[in-house]
Amino acid sequence: MADDIMALDERLARLEMTVATGFSELGARIENVERGLRAEMHAIEGGLRDEMRTMDGGLRDEICSVESRLRVLIEASRDEQRLTAEAFGATLKRIDARLEQMHQEHRQAQGDHARAIQDHERRITVLERRRGERRSGS
Predict the structure, then answer these.
(1) What pLDDT, in 10s, does the model give residues 15-46?
(2) Is 54 helix (H, G, I), strand (E, B) or coil?
């Protein structure tokens, strides 16, 4: 029986050694996998940072490009507005000059008309006097 206990102890000791070796090997493999994952995650993180920097730079360039195009469009719009305002002002001056000319022509026509009416009135008055004189003298 003592031999059986010894054999059992030996078997348990070998089993403990096998389990300990297995756990040790498993721990080493887990550490290797963990190291690999960390290295891969670090590489991915670095790649993402680089890509974000590139995208950020690209976005900045694009924003600058859009801003410069907007400035050009705003300046062109200002020029067009200025030209339009100048053309509108010139048109208003021409309209004003034409209205003034028409007003002068109207005043002249009114004066001519008033003189014609006065002349007619004078002539009618003369004719009516003559007619009255003829009637009284007949």
Answers:
(1) 788 878 888 888 888 888 899 888 888 888 88
(2) helix
Backbone angles phi, psi at 82, to 5 degrees: -65, -45
CA distance linking residue 48 with residue 14, whole number of Å = 50
Q: What is the token pair recorded at 49?
A: 């940072």
CA angle centred on 64, ends 68 and 54, rounded to 5° = 155
Give the start-end residues of each E strand in the chain: none
SS3 7: helix
CA distances from 47 to 10, 35, 37, 62, 69 (A): 54, 18, 15, 22, 32
> Model pTM greater than 0.85?
no
Rounded CA-CA distance 51/73 in Å is 32
**Residue 59 amino acid letter:** L
- The span from the CA of 79 to the CA of 85, in Å, is 10
Place of tokens 């028409």: 102
